[in-house]
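Shipment paperwork, digital attachment
Item: protein structure file
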Amino acid sequence: MTPEEMRERLGPFRDMAVARGIPVEDVERWTDDTARPCVTLAEGGDGPVVGRFGGPLLLPVGTPHPFHPFVASIDLAALPAGATDLPLPPDGRLLLFAYPENFGDGENMGSAVYVPVGTAVEERDKEGWAWFDTHDEYQEVFAQFPQETLRATVDVSLPYHHCVEIPEEPYSEPLPGHPRAEELAEVWQETQDDISSPGQLQLGGYADEEAIDADPVAQAMRYAIREAAAGRWGGGAPVSGDLADWVLLADWNPWIDGLEGATVHWAIPREDLAARRFERVFTTVFWNP
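Attachment content:
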């Protein structure tokens, strides 16, 4: 989606923001600075079939079984051209894994595996993830994972968040350069349904969650830095602490009974994504039980 196409799609947002008394220059600066293309993946719509929730788990031969359960498989070659601003591979399959619960300790709750075209694969047991046999509740949650074909719709995304955290009182401030950020984020929440498509899974764009002030990708970055320092993630390579270096790979709203309001965020440094180092994805979950 081109900048011109995004501006056209965001017409209802601009109209409501101006009607709320937000100066035109603030509205235009917000849309020009922050708008990002993204892809909504859902069962409905007229877009191309690009993958599915669930289905057989086909991993490259010899790849260790991912720790978390299988969520979805996406055919990258089937995505519409220019659908996101992410440096995704032009083809191959992207496999997403996650468990949609937050245990409160900031651990990595998922992963992503890239399967290049022509890679020898083998089917694995989808129930072979780490906790499946430990408690019935994990099996009950996994039984509710969606199982459906995914079609792609190209959309535009604006921030749902409006502040950055700072170390001293008041401990947060508006996004740099956008003093009306909170009002603008509220307008986006109200107009999004008129602009973008509904769906449980999104590639690129901005992360959303039930209660949001700061960018969820910033939280993923902080946890990744901590886990890397402890030797539990990252493979020993340096981890950037500059949020501008990180992108949202995917967002998932599971819609699972008992985990209502949970949202999964897969984040990765842009440089690692461009280099196809998908082992550098860090996955966080927001859930307020």
